[in-house]
Specification:
The protein is of the alpha+beta class. It contains ten helices and twelve strands. It has two domains: 162 residues, Ribosomal Protein S5, domain 2; 113 residues, Alpha-Beta Plaits. It starts with a strand and ends with a strand. The mean pLDDT is 94.
């Protein structure tokens, strides 16, 4: 099976408190985008094996795709026998959910390959044990995410537009970003305004209420610089996604988005032109 695993962006991300167990509570609007990793799942040989096109990406139990497969077979009681080849396009330490997208694609793919017939709720339960973003990456589209990210409410889809995504060389470790957030009093909540803008299908309204509390926490100068370039090139709005460091800009015209991408590529290696999508992944062949 070949399957595309779509990245995600955060249209909003509000830090909403902390649970007694130390997990941070969130309230955010998440959106799937067409930037994707490509996975190939092959069955028939005992064990779980992961290979990746990007040097340095771990292929052992610390890999989210490996963990997803391991938990899937533990749930089904079946004998593990899958090879997972990952062609990475989604940058790491970017806030784009690449690892979560890979894990979700593996769970979705194995559910089809082995005809286990697990419900979306069951798959989300397995996915949550891999990571808090995996349940959204199994749902896809546009959704309000609450709790630690696992409480999902589908929302009206993002109006059609073009997105430029740029990741600066600096990466952000998610755990360190959350630890740093405990030292800050972050202000501002955009999520209710974003829900209203999506319900009205108002792209300008969506762009006007983009917001991410982690921008105050990580305070990366390159994020501000990239956002400034995007706005100067006609972006309706620009914002960092997740705990960083990738930034996205919203454009109504593909030509303007392409021009922005071309300018950013003069300084940055990881620049992408993509669009919102309504699904979490896409099976290309079986």
């Amino acid at each position: 099976m070949q399957i595309l695993a779509y990245a995600k962006i955060n249209l909003t991300l509000d830090l909403a408190g902390k649970r007694a167990d130390g997990y941070h509570l969130l309230r955010m609007v998440m959106q799937s985008v067409s930037l994707c990793d490509r996975l190939e799942l092959t069955t028939g040989k005992p064990g779980i094996r992961v290979t990746c096109s990007t040097p340095g990406v771990p292929c052992d139990r610390s890999n989210t795709a490996y963990r997803a497969a391991e938990l899937f077979f533990a749930q089904s009681g079946g004998t593990p026998d899958v090879e997972i080849q990952i062609e990475k396009n989604i940058p790491s330490q970017a806030g784009l959910g690449g690892g979560s997208a890979d894990a979700a694609a593996v769970l979705h793919g194995l559910n089809l390959l082995y005809r286990t017939g697990y419900s979306e709720e069951t798959l989300r339960g397995i996915g949550l044990r891999v990571g808090a973003d995996v349940p959204f990456c199994l749902l896809g589209g546009t959704a309000l995410a609450e709790g630690i990210g696992e409480e999902l409410t589908p929302l009206p889809g993002m109006p059609h537009c073009f997105l430029v995504i740029c990741k600066p060389p600096v990466g952000v470790n998610t755990g360190e970003a959350y630890a740093k957030a405990d030292l800050f009093r972050v202000a501002g909540s955009r999520t209710d305004g974003m829900i209203a803008a999506l319900e009205q299908q108002n792209l300008a309204g969506v762009a006007a209420v983009l917001g991410n509390n982690f921008e105050q926490v990580v305070a990366l100068q390159e994020v501000e610089q990239i956002e400034a370039v995007m706005r100067s090139r006609g972006a309706l709005g620009a914002c960092m996604t997740g705990s960083g460091s990738a930034v996205f800009g919203i454009f109504t015209e593909k030509s303007a988005a392409s021009a922005c991408k071309k300018q950013l590529e003069q300084e940055y290696r990881s620049v992408f032109l993509c669009e919102p999508v309504s699904v979490p992944c896409e099976v290309q062949s079986m």
